[in-house]
Amino acid sequence: MEIGSKTDGSKESSNSSMGGLNKADRDRFHTAVYTALALIAFAANSVLCRLALGEAAIDAASFTTIRLVSGALVLLVLVRAAAKTRTDHHRGNWTSAFMLFLYAVTFSFAYTSLNTGTGALILFGSVQATMIIFAVCQGERMRLWGWLGLFMGLAGLTYLVSPGLAAPSPSAAALMTVAGISWGIYSLRGRGSVSPVAVTTDNFLRSTPFVVLISLTFFQNLHITFTGAIYASISGGLTSAIGYVIWYAALRDLSSTGAALVQLIVPVLAALGGVVLLSEPLTMRLLLSSFMIIGGVALALTHAQHSVKVGSSK
């Protein structure tokens, strides 16, 4: 059974388990849960990538290849196991698959030359710019408090990563910018997806020829350790594949602006993951920046609910 698909029986079960909530409230609750799970997956993915590439346990091309191929295999198993899933009616497409590949490969290669702080700032700055520019072009408008919340979140992100900021090489900065734009486009194309599992599976499968080509191109740099392969496999099969399915489910009820804003929380979750999993220190900088980012996102989202579309009577 796919995320977001419901039979009559499951609807009745959901209704009884959520008490007297009306449909709108239930939809908001499901969207909030899907969004939270997706952001946790993204943060975990960042930690895994940092472990693999930061410790030189695997080369960037091989990490990307194992990540996307393992994700495709896991999703294919899920689709085949779900007898009622019909991938012929809900397919991905080559454009989304290429955006997925382009994000993954440029992200990996950029982090071979960028430190974590600089990379995060460029990546999420590019994601925000891409998705918010698209939203504005589509007629979405945030009011003053919404923009203030966005700037507060971006300021918190800058403060969070500022100790690790360094002047990036132009090529690495360009690669991470492309990664952010590609991810923004991939996210935007996922809005309104009726069948997140089937669509994400097809996108992952379509991305495999691109990663195989990259691996062949950089074959002379081949370097894979057992640890690196494990990190890449978990990154692909769990935090990427499953995380992206959940993200596509959340995107159905998120505006372009909202989808852009909530992703600012990912660096906070990744940093907290570093504290828990990597024994990194819990600093006052992390606490203050977390407050700024989460507070800014909450402020922006609250006022984004009252944003208007140009030409709309609402």
Q: Overview of this structure, please?
A:
The protein is built from 12 helices and 2 strands. It has one domain (26-307). The chain has helices at residues 8-17, 23-54, 60-81, 94-110, 116-137, 144-161, 170-190, 196-217, 226-251, 256-262, 266-277, 284-304, and strands at residues 140-141, 308-309. The protein has 314 residues and is mainly alpha-helical. It has a two-stranded antiparallel sheet. Helix 10 packs antiparallel against helix 12. 73% of the residues lie in helices and 1% in strands. The two termini are 36 Å apart.
Overall morphology? globular
| Tally of helical runs | 12
User: Helix and strand succession?
Assistant: HHHHHEHHHHHHHE
What are the segments in which pLDDT stays under 50 over at least 5 consecutive residues?
4-11, 306-314
The major sheet is characterized as: 2 strands, antiparallel
Counting helices, strands and paired strands, the structural category is mainly alpha
Number of domains: 1
Per-chain topology:
Elements: H1 8-17, H2 23-54, H3 60-81, H4 94-110, H5 116-137, E1 140-141, H6 144-161, H7 170-190, H8 196-217, H9 226-251, H10 256-262, H11 266-277, H12 284-304, E2 308-309
Antiparallel strand pairs: 1-2
Question: What distinguishing features does this structure have?
Answer:
314 residues; mainly alpha; disordered C terminus
